[in-house]
Amino acid sequence: xxxxxxxxxxxxxxxxxxxxxxxxxxxxxxxxxxxxxxxxxxxxxxxxxxxxxxxxxxxxxxxxxxxxxxxxxxxxxxxxxxxxxxxxxxxxxxxxxxxxxxxxxxxxxxxxxxxxxxxxxxxxxxxxxxxxxxxxxxxxxxxxxxxxxxxxxxxxxxxxxxxxxxxxxxxxxxxxxxxxxxxxxxxxxxxxxxxxxxxxxxxxxxxxxxxxxxxxxxxxxxxxxxxxxxxxxxxxxxxxxxxxxxxxxxxxxxxxxxxxxxxxxxxxxxxxxxxxxxxxxxxxxxxxxxxxxxxxxx
Length: 298
Prior knowledge:
Oligomer: single chain
Strand content: under 5%
Helix content: over 70%
Structural class: mainly alpha
Number of domains: 1
Radius of gyration: 19 Å
Order of helices and strands: HHHHHHHHHHHH
Shape: globular
Number of helices: 12
């Protein structure tokens, strides 16, 4: 078990609940329309977990190569930084998860559409390939977008829009414009989780040339931005509920409001290392928000 601990550490298990939120939300919306396949759901979860772990591994290797993971960083000590795994170990792991993501994603498309070469299948394969590239390019390469303040945008697109709409599309073979608002709300919360990480590490990122949004706009403005992300997500739910009201259960997501308020209070009154616990807290709150929104459609 001890030999596996460095690998498990680098998988970053506390980020995984966030990665499945979009799959759950899209699937529950499809289920509310009487369209659900357990095999597609399980394979979609497997695919998104492979992609999330791939992103985490690539992120650790990229930050290690650029010197961003150092003794001044306030987050958990990474496996490469601690000398538990080598950079070559990570290259092999990354290659393995690229293959797993490709196999799982391709199997998912075949299972859903029964044809790998129809235009719907090809569209999903293209977006899946883009997700793999986005996972790799966050911190790897000569010009990673995570070092230019674009991480929030990509998280919004892939963890919010693509994850939610993709899961729904796999189940129903159609796209619904009414799902755009829930998908956008989830994307805002996923961006907020990344923003917590970036606010925590703002000082070290600035020194290392990692120009995240908090580095660019400053910690106070980053907290204002953070508040806007969460307020926007909650507002999206309220607007959606007002437009499509189908009973009191539609207000279930608002049960998470006290959790979001607690989180915002901590974000505004703390900084640095004290924000580390909020990554897991906000990830789990976002998962609960997605589940309640999906359940509320029934």
